[in-house]
Structures are given as structure tokens and as C-alpha cells.
Amino acid sequence: MALKNEYLKGVYGSLEEKSGHEPEFLQAVREVLESLEPVVERRPELEKNGIIERLVEPERTVMFRVPWVDDSGKVWVNRGYRVQFNSAIGPYKGGLRLHPSVNLSIIKFLGFEQVFKNSLTTLPIGGGKGGSDFDPKGKSDGEIMRFCQSFMTELCRHIGPATDVPAGDIGVGGREIGYLFGQYKRLRNEYSGVLTGKGLTYGGSLARTEATGYGLCYFADEMLKAAGRSFVGANVVISGSGNVAIYANQKATALGAKVIAMSDSNGYIVDEKGIDYKVMKEIKEVRRERIKTYLNYVSTAKYVEGCKGIWTVPCDVALPCATQNELDEEGAKALVQNGCFAVAEGANMPSTPEAVAIFQSAGLLFAPAKAANAGGVATSALEMSQNSQRLSWTFEEVDAKLHGIMVSIYQNASKAAEEYGKPGDLVAGANIAGFLKVADAMLAQGIV
Ligand code: NDP
Predict the structure, then answer these.
(1) H-run or E-run covering 408
(2) What's the rounded mean pLDDT across residues 85-111?
(3) Quick check: 402 and 378 in contact, CB under 8 A?
(4) Is pLDDT at 2 greater than 90 in this prediction?
């Protein structure tokens, strides 16, 4: 879709000139700006105050060297990032990603998305993101620890419980958060809620591990119900087999669906009898093995090499939960042809713009990531609240709050879509609802 509004066209054009080498970031910005056309037309003060120009420029970007020593004594150097995008409504909040594909464009796209997502949660958190091109696969615990300690040695200068509170993302789970937290505490001599996703013995919140996957299903459930559909009896395909995917499987199954396919970056497994999330948890969280080994535990499953083919498995509901741009035009066409009626994004920006256009024109129900996967960061904010109060809530309390937040995100996104003339378009609705709160806070705080 071409941008029509002159103001937005101008902002995007100059961003393209400055950031032409950052395709993922431009893709994320473009999608949001397309949704904001009716908003800037209704509210001229946004242009007068340069809100969009300020919104697309991070408040601060930190890039740094991360030297570490492997088990054989060899020195390696990776690149570390923290992009503090927007603090209009609260301290920067967003995960750390450890994956060889990490670069500035990917961290900026994730940080930009995080601003709107965090706003949608209704909680007081700004947007940021960070990470490194370090590859945790195949590394020993000692190597992971030394990398995390080196990473935090620099990062600790830029974060704090009232400044910036990182969390996990791809490649960063409980083990890594533990090492990062230990090093922060040692360097700053301070025991505070500076990271979320912590272990339960040192300030973590119950239900944080499950939150993104559960929240995705709570959101999808609302969307399905509003259309007279449901998870009951639905066949579900989930890409990925990490944190988000595993708990999406558990919750979708609990809501009456059958998860028939899951993947990792090497390939995918199919089991028409339903994939057991507990076996997947053991393989991925405990043994840290490849998904192929699922066949050693469950004889009815089949394995197919190559992860992209997962979208050709016929299903009713697709939950992409691996990584950005994993679901392209070809995958989208296959899903539509095979009768899929709903797609809800667990990963960040997993569908390409071409794939989203196919879903929308075929009339599929489509839940965009920044609304559908906001349950993780929402529960991180609940962890921050518990840390400030020096209290721990029960699993049921946190899960009930998460459920309430996901329902209200769905309602707010639907309402905004309707108010701005795009009923049923949750992409536009989520972008607009997330934007309005941040823009109003920026207007109130002057030119900063
Ligand atoms: P994990 O590291 O736990 O799992 C990632 C999964 O995706 C793995 O199965 C991995 O396979 C697969 N994957 C990663 N990169 C690629 C790639 N380039 N191609 C194909 N598959 C890939 O990460 P999470 O589950 O935490 O995160 C998954 C997605 O959800 C990300 O987009 C993340 O930003 C998003 N997200 C996560 C939240 C959270 O709370 N964890 C919150 C909100 C969003 P392999 O092991 O082979 O690499």
C-alpha cells in the first residue's frame, strides 16, 4: 500500500534516505505509518509538534564490544546493542536477543514495535530492545556465563529499575537472565528489579515463562469468539519450538485445539494425534536438542527437513512463533488454499507485508504481533510491580491479570479500528490504539 498523506510520506522518505540499509526497521515503520494516516489527518497538532519524526528516531542507541573467552581459552568478540526507543509513558522495556542474525536494523525494528506493544498493555512501560550477534547454540554453560557477564559489564551503565528494564527474547531464557542479573548485582552492589524473566527464587514472577504463549491464545480466543469461531476442535500449526511456541501449544490444547505441527530452524514435525508440549519442553528447555529428536519419544510423529514447509500442513489456525518474516507470500497462499481461517502472530513481525495482504484480502482473521504477543511484556511489567512491592503473587493471580490484559488489548484494538473507519482490521487498530497514548504523552511533555 502506498502512503498517501504528505506529512507521513515526507517522514518516511527521509527515514528511507537515512536508514536505507535497515530493511526490517523500515518495514516495521512503514506498516505503522500506513495505519496512522486517518489519525494524522484528524489531528494536525501531531505534524506541528513533529511527533512522527520523533517517534521514528530512537532516544538513544548504544553499540558496544563484547569480548569473551571460550572453554579452550580463545578470545571472541561480539557486538552488543541496546536501543532505548521511547520513554514517554515509562522506563524503556524490551527483551535482549542473542542470535547470529542480530544487527542494528533488527534491534531497531524490535524496539520500534515494542513502543506500541507496551502502550497497548495499558501498563506504564516505554519501549526498547537489545541483544547481540552471539550464537548461544552449542556453547557450554561456562561460555554462556562469560558472554553474559561481559555483555552486562557494559550494559549496566545504561539500565536500571527506573530507567530501562531488559528481559528475554530469542536465545535468552532463564539461564541467561540469571547470569545477567548476577553480574549486574555484583557491579552495581544493588539488588533491584532491573531485569524481568528472573528465576522464582530471586524475584521472578510466576507465569512469566508461560505468558507470551498463553497471552497469544487468550487474544486469539477473543478474536475467534467475536467471529463465532473457537479453538475447540481446531487443528493448529505452530512454527518454532521455543518459549512462545511451547506455551502456545499448551494453552491452545487446553482450549480444545489440537497442535499438529511445530518447527525449529532445521525442520518441522507433524503428528495428527497432537504434539505433546511436555515432550517439547524436555527436548528444548532441558536437553537443548533439535526438534528432530521428538521422533525418539513419540513414534506417530514425522519429521520434514526445512522449516518453511510447515505452512503447507493443512490447518484451521496458524500461530507463527519463531522469528521475523518467516511466513511469506508462498506460505500465506498455502494456508489460505488449505482452508486456514485465522492467523495470530506470536513472534514479532513473522508475516511479510505480502503475506498480511493475502490474509486480509482472503478475509482471514488476523491478529498482529504487537497486540497478540503483548502478554509477555505485560507480565514482565507485573514482575516489576511485584519487585517494587517486595511481594509475590500466585500463578492464578498473575494468569488472571494476564487474561484480563489480553481481553482489553483485543477490545481496544477493535474499538480503535472501528473509530478510524477500519472495522475488523486489528493491524490498524493495534497501531492506532498503541500510538495514541504515546503521542498524547509526548505532546504533554514538550519538545524532548
Ligand atoms: P526462543 O529462542 O525460545 O525460540 C525461538 C524459536 O524460533 C526456536 O524454535 C528457533 O529455532 C526458532 N527460530 C529462531 N530464529 C529462526 C530463524 N531465523 N529461522 C527459523 N526459526 C528460527 O525464542 P522465543 O520463543 O522467546 O521468541 C520467538 C519469537 O517471539 C521472537 O520473534 C520473539 O521476538 C517473540 N517474542 C518473544 C517473547 C517472549 O516472552 N519470549 C515476547 C514477545 C515476542 P532454533 O532453535 O533452530 O534456532
Answers:
(1) helix 395-419
(2) 98
(3) yes
(4) no
Write the burial class of residue 45 (CB in 10 Å: 0-12 exposed, 13-18 middle, 19+ buried). Answer: exposed
Half-sphere exposure of 7 (CA within 13 A, CB side): 19
State the cell numbers at 225.
469468539
Where does ligand 1 bind, in terms of residues with CB under 6 Å?
A: 99, 101, 168-171, 212, 240-245, 264-266, 307, 321-323, 326, 346-348, 373, 376
Q: Which of 120, 134, 243, 251 should be mutated for ligand 1, with most atoms under 8 A from CB?
A: 243
Q: What are phi and psi of 230, to 5 degrees?
A: -165, 165
Name the residue type at position 91. P
Per the listing, cell 511456541 goes with: 245
- Residue 276, C-beta contacts closer than 8 angstroms, at least 6 positions apart: 298
What's this model's pTM, rounded to 2 decimal places?
0.97
Q: Return the sign of the alpha-carbon dihedral for residues 305, 309, 315, 317.
A: positive
**Residues composing the chain:** 448
Burial 416-429 (b: 16+ CB within 10 A, else e): bbebbebebbbbbb
Other CB atoms within 10 Å distance of the CB of residue 292:
17
**Spatial distance between the Cα atoms of 291 and 220, rounded to a whole number of angstroms:** 25
Return d(Cα 374, Cα 413) in angstroms, integer: 12
Q: Per-residue confidence at 119, pLDDT binned at 50, 70, 90?
A: very high
Distance between CA atoms of 147 and 69, rounded to whole angstroms?
8
Q: Looking at ligand 1, which residue's alpha carbon is closest to its atom 15? A: 323
Phi/psi of residue 171, nearest 5 degrees: 80, 0
In what order do the strands lie in the sheet containing 75-86?
A: 60-69, 75-86, 126-132, 92-98, 164-167
Contact 27, 349 (CB under 8 A): yes
- With 0-12 / 13-18 / 19 or more C-beta atoms within 10 angstroms meaning exposed / middle / buried, residue 176 is buried
Cβ proximity of 55 and 128 under 8 Å: no
- Told to judge if 129 belongs to the known catalytic residues of this protein, a careful annotator would answer yes
Pull the grid cell for residue 26: 523500515
